[in-house]
């Protein structure tokens, strides 16, 4: 059989990021083809490999690990000590024979890759946002559930790359995504889309004064952040939490090792292009360390500052809402994009995806070229 050359096609913007690659054989991926995929990923941030039906969880794990060959291969969120209180707990099921790969989606399944008689539930904003869309509008309208980076943000380094494989995609209806933040902004989106924004663009559109600030500022994340934030509620745009004093006190968290708390730069440097991305997980922040050494410990002040810096870049013209097709295999630069689950499903609308990411073997690179 003739070996086909990879065909790279940049996605038609706006927004100006993302690319599709055709003719990829993930089960027989040579070094040259992998290097094409890697360079495309770090230049375009999202790579959609088309027509990958039948790719195994093992092959998904192997290509994801290939971006970070020295990583230990442990799931990017680790083994949460107190999983049932974590906001991530309901959303994931682990493939028994490939524990780095998780299953996400919606609906009941008799069997899939060793999992039996299980029900998946697509995250709905009404369980996480302070104010929800009304029941009568629920299936026609949706929101960004939670803008985030895939990362434990405590003890483990943020994964370099996440892969998503579309096994089953519900047919065709669309929803209107509302920001509900007073701006009147909204978007037409496919059901169950994954929304992405570029951290590089998030940095590039800042004022020169704000660019200077974020190049030198750091974010301190809460220990066990997904347990810590669990009683709190999110803003309606999905971009961080409302400060109502509901976060769990340290005494109610799993044991905390102070040396494992993450203080990460606001800007992360692309390993191929050297360009900077504003990369902050807004829901998990506990404090902001300013370039002059001062620390903003008032939670509302820290959150409001980060929201002001990030919010312009999630306006509709900057959002890539992927229209999933069964067999799409998406790799994204987890250290260069922020993304969100989107969508409100009826119980009979079935969706099944596989997700893989692994804690990085090294810290993230800041604007100063140092690893954190």
UniProtKB/TrEMBL annotation:
Pfam family, one: TauD
Domain called TauD/TfdA-like: residue spans: 8-354
Xref: Gene3D superfamilies: Clavaminate synthase-like (3.60.130.10)
Keywords assigned: Dioxygenase, Iron, Metal-binding, Oxidoreductase
GO MF term (any one): metal ion binding
Obligatory cofactor(s): Fe(2+)
Family the entry assigns: Belongs to the TfdA dioxygenase family.
Protein's name according to its UniProt entry: Clavaminate synthase-like protein
């Amino acid at each position: 059989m003739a070996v086909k050359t990879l065909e790279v096609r940049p996605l038609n913007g706006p927004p100006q990021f993302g690319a599709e690659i055709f003719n990829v054989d993930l089960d027989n991926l040579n070094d040259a083809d992998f290097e094409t995929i890697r360079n495309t990923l770090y230049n375009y941030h999202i790579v959609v490999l088309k027509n990958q039906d039948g790719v195994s969880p093992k092959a998904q794990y192997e290509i994801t690990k290939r971006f970070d060959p020295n990583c230990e291969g442990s799931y990017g969120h680790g083994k949460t000590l107190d999983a049932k209180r974590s906001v991530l707990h309901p959303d994931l099921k682990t493939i028994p024979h490939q524990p780095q790969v998780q299953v996400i989606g919606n609906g009941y399944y008799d069997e899939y890759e060793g999992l039996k008689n299980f029900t998946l539930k697509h995250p709905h904003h009404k369980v996480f946002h302070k104010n929800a869309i009304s029941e009568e509008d629920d299936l026609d309208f949706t929101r960004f559930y939670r803008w985030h980076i895939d990362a434990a943000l405590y003890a483990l380094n943020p994964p370099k790359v996440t892969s998503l494989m579309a096994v089953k995609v519900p047919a065709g209806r669309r929803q209107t995504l509302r920001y509900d933040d007073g701006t009147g902004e909204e978007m037409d989106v496919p059901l169950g889309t994954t929304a992405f924004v570029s951290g590089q663009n998030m940095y590039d559109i800042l004022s020169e004064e704000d660019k200077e600030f974020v190049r030198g500022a750091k974010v301190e994340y809460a220990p066990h952040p997904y347990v810590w934030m669990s009683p709190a509620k999110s803003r309606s745009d999905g971009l961080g939490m409302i400060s109502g004093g509901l976060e769990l006190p340290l005494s109610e968290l799993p044991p905390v090792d102070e040396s494992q708390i993450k203080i990460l730069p606001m800007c992360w440097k692309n390993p191929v292009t050297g360009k900077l991305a504003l990369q902050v997980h807004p829901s998990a922040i506990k404090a902001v360390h300013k370039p002059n050494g001062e620390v903003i410990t008032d939670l509302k002040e820290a959150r409001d500052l980060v929201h002001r810096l990030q919010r312009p870049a999630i306006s509709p013209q900057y959002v890539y809402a992927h229209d999933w097709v069964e067999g799409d295999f998406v790799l994204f630069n987890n250290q260069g994009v922020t993304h969100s689950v989107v969508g409100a499903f009826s119980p009979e609308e079935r969706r099944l995806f596989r997700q893989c990411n692994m804690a990085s073997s090294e810290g993230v690179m800041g604007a100063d070229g140092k690893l954190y």
